[in-house]
């Protein structure tokens, strides 16, 4: 079992049942995700909250059973006002506890409290895990990055992700206690209140004791003896298999490929010797292009048992006028579709058009989880996000509707490129942890710059580009000018609308 600690520790290793014997008992792991937001510089019981947390980490970490591997993630420790300030300081599964504590000692509170993204980052590391993961979140305040962590936990639960979430409120007010309590309830765990360092230590000691008990339980679990045949059942929503050229099954111990499945079915079972196997999917590329590979995970096959690997999928709903327009200039010119895990940013699928586009918007089979979808256009090397936090459930199809965007009208002046910036939504809860909130930065959503000088292929600037509904600023590069020109501010793009935009040049 893997244990994740969102600023803390984890617990609750379930007993194996006769229906799911394993070839070995997984030991608990601990991943610390440490809150280092600006408010952690405040006083709690006569010392700064961050100093109390560091002291508790020094007490708890060495006391963990030696079998427990550790990791460290921190947020808010580098940049004030940055909701993306989440960093893996030590990957999960490390035995270097002193190195972890050295990283903890370097933390200083500076930034915001992106609880939602922190939970997504943790969950993104749990895909394909057989054992239940207990997540314990310790926070000294509410979400400050306009997220909805309680909703995200419920969504993650709906994907079948195997975790229990406990929450610890460190010297928090009533609003934070309410939010953290909601998180714990949604995650099937408990909420703990800690007013100072001593209370924080007591709370984490209680959880770490459960970890120690789980280690002992793991040692005595019944394991499947001997060798023999088991089965891997690979299932996905009907039609999703069309995006795959193959699925490869290799022994985890030596990497030897024992089976390559090319005639894929939506639901099929494959006999294998008992053991651990790494499963990889190869996404098809048209015109006999090289397949892009995505690792689905390492799975245990037990004697006389069937291990289910049930995928979900993302489907795309596009207007017919964009998907198959007769006029070349009226079509979408998407070179690559990229699907990434919303929390970790790990690429889950990459599909290239390879001058054909047959597979571009075919259903994409994926491990259950939460994903972002990006497009790379022919006139831009940079990805453009068109859908965020798409929830994929096992055996289910999640449809992403792409029916809004922009198309620039060719101006009289020659232009060499443009950029579209999205204005983030404002939230009453998204205040700074300390001091006045700075002006919120615009987010680069899409851009086009197909070439320079004689090689400029200007047609690419005026193709349709998909954008989520929202408010945008436009910026134009005019040939002969050294600085970009603002062409539109606070431009509204509505769902179902392909905006034809006149630059005024």
UniProtKB/TrEMBL annotation:
<feature type="signal peptide">
    <location>
        <begin position="1"/>
        <end position="19"/>
    </location>
</feature>
<protein>
    <submittedName>
        <fullName>von Willebrand factor type A domain protein</fullName>
    </submittedName>
</protein>
<dbReference type="InterPro" id="IPR002035">
    <property type="entry name" value="VWF_A"/>
</dbReference>
<dbReference type="InterPro" id="IPR051266">
    <property type="entry name" value="CLCR"/>
</dbReference>
<dbReference type="Pfam" id="PF13519">
    <property type="entry name" value="VWA_2"/>
</dbReference>
<dbReference type="InterPro" id="IPR036465">
    <property type="entry name" value="vWFA_dom_sf"/>
</dbReference>
<keyword id="KW-0732">Signal</keyword>
<feature type="domain" description="VWFA">
    <location>
        <begin position="29"/>
        <end position="211"/>
    </location>
</feature>
């Amino acid at each position: 079992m893997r244990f994740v600690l969102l600023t803390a520790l984890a617990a609750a290793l379930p007993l194996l049942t006769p229906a799911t014997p394993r070839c070995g008992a997984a030991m608990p792991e601990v991943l610390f995700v440490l809150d280092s937001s600006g408010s952690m510089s405040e006083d709690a019981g006569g010392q700064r909250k961050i100093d109390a947390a560091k002291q508790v980490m020094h007490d708890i970490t060495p006391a963990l059973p030696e079998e427990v591997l550790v990791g460290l993630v921190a947020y808010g420790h580098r940049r004030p006002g940055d909701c993306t300030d989440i960093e893996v300081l030590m990957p999960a599964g490390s035995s270097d506890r002193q190195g972890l504590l050295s990283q903890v000692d370097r933390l200083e509170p500076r930034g915001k409290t992106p609880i939602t993204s922190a939970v997504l980052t943790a969950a993104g590391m749990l895909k394909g895990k057989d054992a239940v993961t207990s997540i314990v979140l310790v926070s000294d305040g509410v979400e400050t990055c306009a997220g909805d962590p309680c909703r995200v936990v419920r969504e993650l639960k709906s994907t079948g992700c195997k975790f229990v979430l406990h929450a610890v409120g460190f010297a928090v007010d009533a609003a934070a206690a309410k939010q953290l309590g909601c998180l714990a309830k949604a995650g099937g765990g408990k909420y703990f209140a800690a007013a100072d360092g001593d209370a924080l230590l007591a709370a984490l000691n209680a959880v770490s004791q459960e970890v120690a008990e789980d280690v002992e339980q793991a040692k005595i679990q019944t394991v499947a003896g001997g060798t023999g045949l088991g089965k891997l059942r690979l299932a996905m929503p009907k039609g999703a298999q069309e995006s795959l050229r193959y699925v490869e099954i290799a022994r985890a111990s030596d990497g030897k490929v024992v089976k390559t499945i090319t005639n894929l079915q939506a639901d099929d079972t494959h006999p294998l010797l008992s053991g651990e196997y790494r499963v990889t999917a190869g996404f098809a590329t048209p015109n006999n292009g090289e397949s892009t590979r995505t690792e689905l995970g390492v799975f245990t096959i037990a004697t006389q048992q069937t291990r289910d690997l049930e995928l979900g999928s993302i489907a795309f709903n596009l207007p017919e006028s964009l998907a198959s327009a007769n006029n070349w200039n009226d079509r979408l010119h998407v070179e690559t579709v990229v699907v990434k895990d919303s929390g970790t940013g790990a690429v889950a699928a990459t599909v290239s058009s390879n001058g054909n586009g047959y597979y571009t918007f075919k259903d994409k089979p994926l491990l259950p989880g939460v994903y972002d979808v990006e497009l790379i256009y022919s006139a831009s090397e940079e990805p453009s996000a068109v859908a965020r936090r798409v929830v994929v459930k096992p055996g289910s199809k999640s449809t992403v509707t792409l029916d809004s965007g922009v198309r620039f009208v060719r101006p009289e002046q020659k232009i060499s490129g443009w950029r579209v910036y999205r204005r983030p939504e404002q939230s009453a809860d998204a205040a700074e942890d300390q001091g006045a909130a700075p002006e919120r930065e615009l987010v680069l959503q899409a851009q086009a710059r197909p070439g320079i000088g004689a090689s400029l292929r200007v047609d690419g600037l005026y193709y349709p580009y998909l954008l989520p509904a929202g408010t945008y600023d436009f910026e134009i590069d005019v040939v002969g000018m050294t600085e970009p020109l603002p062409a539109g501010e606070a431009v509204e793009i509505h769902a179902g609308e392909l905006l034809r935009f006149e630059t005024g040049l």
